[in-house]
Amino acid sequence: MTASTTPRDTTLTIRGRRRLAAATAAVLAAASLPVLLTPPAGADALVRQTATLTTSIPGKPAAGTPAYRQIQQASVVVEYPAGGSYAMVTANITLKAAPPSTGDNIVQIGLGRQSGGNCVISNRRSDTGTKVSYDLTGVETPPSGSWDCVVARVGPDYVGSTAADYDVMIGPLTNTYVAPQVSVGEVELFGASQGKLKLVPKVARRYWVTVRNPGEVDATGVVLRATGKRIKSSEVVVGTLAAGKETRVSVPIKLTRKQRTTVELTVVSGSASASRKLKVKPVAAPARPRPGIYRSKNGVTFSVKKGRIVGWNGRMQTRCGGYPDPLTYTQNAYDFPSTKIPRDGVVDAHHTGANYGTTLRMRIVGGKATKGSFTYSGPGRCFASVSFKAKRR
C-alpha cells in the first residue's frame, strides 16, 4: 500500500461547483454537514471518532461511471491515545467492483474540520490497485487537536489533479468522549495495609495512600483529601495521573479528640471522584524513646537527644546509571539531619538538597527502633536504600 501526505495547491472543480480544494478543502453544501454537538457534561476527553459513509454527494457518480470507479462504502475509526498529540487512523474504502489494472483509480480518505458548509482537509491517506477493498491505516497528527469531518473519494489522480473525481462521499465524524476515572487503593503504614487507623490523639501521622486511574484517559488536577469528624488533615496535590497508572502519596491524618470516628479518603479529578472510609481508634501514646546511642547490626547508628534523632549515619550500596549506560555500584556513607520524634514514635522525615533527596522512617519506642528505612536519590540516576532495626547501647 502507498500513501500520499504531500500538500497540493490545485483546486478541483466539478461542473462549475467547488467540491475539493486539494490539500486544503473539501466542500459540501452546508445542509449536508450537521452542526456538531457540545461534549456532554463531565466527558473531558475525546478518545474515539467514527464515520460510515454510504451516500455520494449530489451529481456523483455520473451516469455511465463504471462500477470499479464507484464507492460502495467508506468507514473510518480515529483513536486518540491518552497523553498523545497524534491519532491512529483506521479507514477503509470498498468499491463496487475491482479495477481492471493498477492506476485506473486512486482511492483516498481525507480528514478535516468543518468551516461553514466546507470540510477543510488537513490529513489524507491514499492507495491504488486492482482490489475491491482498500485499507488506509496509519498515524496522523490533527493540526487542531482533532477532526470533525471525513471525505472519501475515488478519482484518476491524487487530490490536486485538474481531472474530475469519479465518486465522492462526505460526512461528519461521531465523537466518543470519556470522563477520567480515579479510585482509592491501599492505605499503608510501614508497607503494611491498614484496615483501621490507630492514632494517638493530637499527633499527626502520615499514611501512604495508593491513588489509581483505571480509565482510558489521563486524570488531571488530581487531589486527595482526608475528612471526618474530629479529623484534621491537609489536601494533597497529586497532579496528573496517566491512564491505567497508579501512584502512592503521603497524607497526614490527626485525631483531634480521644474519641472513635471515621476518616473518609477522597480523590478528585474534575468531575470524577472516589472515596474510601476507615474506622479510627484512639490509642495511648507509647513509651518515650530513651536518650542514648542506637546501633543496628548492618552499620546504622544515631542518637536520641531531647526527643530528636541526631547524627543518623549509615553505609550502604549505591547504584548509579541505567540504560543505555552501564550500571555502577559503590559503597557510600550517608547521613540525615536532626529530626523530631513525634509523640506516637513514628518518624517519617524527608530532606531535600540542591540536587538530591533523602527519607528516613522508623518506629522508635523505649530503647528500640523498628521498621527503619533510609532512601537516597540523586544526580546520575543514583539510588541507595537500607532497612534497619536498632537498639540503644
Describe the structure.
This protein is mainly β. The protein folds into three domains: 11-178, no CATH class; 183-282, Immunoglobulin-like (Sandwich); 292-392. It is 0% helix and 58% strand. The chain is built from no helices and 31 strands. The protein has strands at residues 11-14, 17-21, 25-27, 45-53, 71-79, 87-95, 106-115, 118-127, 133-140, 149-155, 167-172, 174-178, 183-189, 192-193, 196-199, 205-212, 219-227, 231-233, 236-241, 246-255, 261-269, 272-282, 292-296, 301-305, 308-320, 328-336, 339-340, 346-352, 357-365, 368-378, 382-392. Strands 23, 24, 25, 26, 27, 28, 29, 30 and 31 form a nine-stranded antiparallel beta sheet that branches. A seven-stranded antiparallel beta sheet has the order 1-2-3-8-7-10-11, with no helix packed on it. A hairpin with a 3-residue loop joins strand 2 (17-21) and strand 3 (25-27). The relative contact order is 0.12. Keywords: Signal. Residues 1-43 form the signal peptide.
Radius of gyration: 32 Å
Q: Please bin the fraction of helical residues.
A: under 10%
Tally of separate helices: 0
Strand content: over 45%
Detail the poorly predicted runs: 1-43
- Biggest pleated-sheet summary: 9 strands, antiparallel
Structural class: mainly beta
Question: Would you count the extended β strands for me?
Answer: 31
Tally of domains? 3
The averaged pLDDT comes out at 86
Tell me the span between the first and last alpha carbons.
77 Å
Shape: elongated
